[in-house]
Structure formats: structure tokens, C-alpha cells
Automatic annotation (TrEMBL):
Lineage per the UniProt record: Bacteria, Bacillati, Actinomycetota, Actinomycetes, Streptosporangiales
Family designation: Belongs to the L2HGDH family.
Entry-linked Pfam families: DAO (PF01266)
Keyword annotations: FAD, Flavoprotein, Oxidoreductase
Name of this protein: L-2-hydroxyglutarate oxidase LhgO
Organism from which the protein derives: Actinomadura algeriensis
Amino acid sequence: MADQVTGIVGAGIIGLAIGREITRRRPGTRVVVMEKEDRVAVHQTAHNSGVVHAGIYYTPGSLKAGLCTRGRGMIREYCAEKGLPYDECGKLVVAVTGEDVARLDDLERRAGVNAVPGMRRIGPAEIREIEPHGTGLAALYSPHTAITDYGLIARAFADEIVAAGGEVRTSFPVTGVTKLAGGGLEIASGERTERVDELIVCAGIHADAVSALVGDDPGPRIVPFRGEYMTIVPEKAHMVRGLIYPVPDPRYPFLGVHFTKRVSGDVEVGPNAVLALAREGYRRSDVSLGDLRGIAGWPGTWRMAARHWRTGAREMYGSFSKRAYMKAARRYVPEIGAGDVVRAGAGVRAQALDRDGSLVDDFRINRLGPVTTIRNAPSPAATSSMSIAEYVLDVIEGVKKS
């Protein structure tokens, strides 16, 4: 094992968590993390909401449910060990219509099966006790839902890899993968190469493209959705103490526009979910013809559009109009409107889409001989990063089947 070299494509929080887990589980293994950007945690890791999820939403028995439950505790302990920010500010999932209340019943059952710690159902008066400026017919209260800074956690993982003798090789975009006759693989980045014995692909928004280099299935295809945020002006930031979420629509993997406290003290509203015109389309003006051809050439894209075009049009309208964007949010905190927020940053969600147009909800991990590909790792992947790392190593070592 001392001569073993494990390559990892992608230095987001998942790839770095897996690299760290390898150094702990297999002392002597050389880990090489290959990242196309000039630093780690540039994309989804740095652009998410920073929430440490408690497991309310996820289908009981799914990978998401199990790995979120374990991962939440692991992240909490890691932050305590490393002195990283971790604030159990709590979360309300609020019903504002009769339909919401009916969905809340199912959500409460799911959360119970998933053993969400301390969660309870509350009414309007207790909503006001927890969030004095909030409103609703009923809510689920999760007191142990927390916030953190996943960029800091990812950098701490990278430091551990390097301290264990590994390498985080930035500015190394993977352009080719070749299986060698004597065993192992050669990873190419232009003229530069790296030989590894095994490879783990954690390429996020580029997961399908990099997986294609190793012969994995073309599906699911990654379709980028931009999530845009607003920041509440300082004069009204005190009106939100923690996290206020809507009851999600079970037809979609997106949670809807919500209020999120950040460890910086800012309070954000968002994100929405707008189809991006580039894989790294953080701005409306970001367009990649190559990415658009790939999106349009996937049969699932058109099947998804046929089912959800009304929702897509509504989200697009909200992207251009602050008033429309805040209309839904005001149902939960009526005193915060379009004049109380400013446009902030955006993230791009790597949404996996099957050929039949289904939005892939659960984590999806494939195994192809010496190569393991992480094909879908949406929220709560950051919360679950350390438990995903354990799971992937178990899959590789034959302890579990993917």
C-alpha cells in the first residue's frame, strides 16, 4: 500500500473530504487532488448557503437521509476540533396555506423517521416567539439546524491532505484519462501527466464531462441552475434570527426561496433556481455555446422543460424583478420587501438530469474498476461531505455496494 497513488479530480468539499479520509484510513497512500482552478473550493462549496442540514426533507432509507444524519454530527465535531464557526441558530419550515399544512404532515413523518434531533411542530404563537417578525399557520422547528463556512472546512481538509504527504495540485484541468497496460491510469492535463493506481471523480458541475473521459454512462447529464441571492439591508437584518424556509414542493429538488442567516452576521434571501446558460454561469450574461449544445442535446432537457416550463418562467421573472422575487418571501416575513434587499452573489447548482427528464434527487455514485465517479451530489452534500467520504471508501473497498 505504501506505493499506492490515489487521484481525485475536483478540490471541492467532497473531493477534499474523500482525500482526507484516504490519508486517515490508508496511511502511506499518496493522494493527489487535481483541480482546474487556481485554488480549492471555488464553485459550489464557496457559493452555497452554509447550512448544516438536520435531515428533515430526505426520503427515509435514501443515501441522502442516512449520510446527512451521520455527516451533520461529524461536521459539528470537526468544527469544534478545528475552531471553525458553527452556529446552531435553528430553522423553521413554515406553512402559510392549507396545502402547505398538508405537506407539513408528510414532512413531519419523514423527519421523525430520519431522527431529526429536537424537532417539534409548533403553531403561530410559537413561530412568533422564535422569529418575532415571522408569520405562518404552522411550522416544524429544528433547533439543531446550524450554519457554518464550508469554504473554511474545505481548506482545512486540504491542509490535512498536504500534512499527510499528499498534494493538492491546482491549475490542473483534466483533459484525458488513459488506462495503462501495466495497470493504473494516466491523467492528462494538456502536456502534463500524472500516473495513479485509482481515480475518484468529484468534478461537481463537470461531473458528467469528466466521467465520460473514463467511459462512464452519458447519463445523468448535468444541467446548471443558477441560484441568485439577495442580502437584507443592515437596518432590517435583525428581523431574522435564524433560518426560515417554506414547505418544499415534493415535485422539485429545490427548497424554494428562504431566509438564511450567515456566520458573517448577514442575512440572505434565496436562492431561486434559474436555468443557467453556462456550467459556470454565475451571471445572466454568462453564456457558453458549448455548454448550451450539451444541454440542448440531452433528451431529458426537453422532457423536463415540457413538465416544468411554468415554474421555469416564474423563476426567470423573479430573476429580473426584485418585487417578484420577494413576493413569495414576504409570506414568511411580511415586513421585508423589495426595498429592503440588495442583489448579492449567486451559485450554480449541478443538477443531474436523467434521460427521461427526471431530476435526480439522491446521491449517485458509480464504480468502474479502478475508477469511482460521483455523478450526483446536491444538497445536503456539504453537510454530508465527511460521511460521503466514508461511504465512497467503503464502496471502493467492497464494504458497501453503490
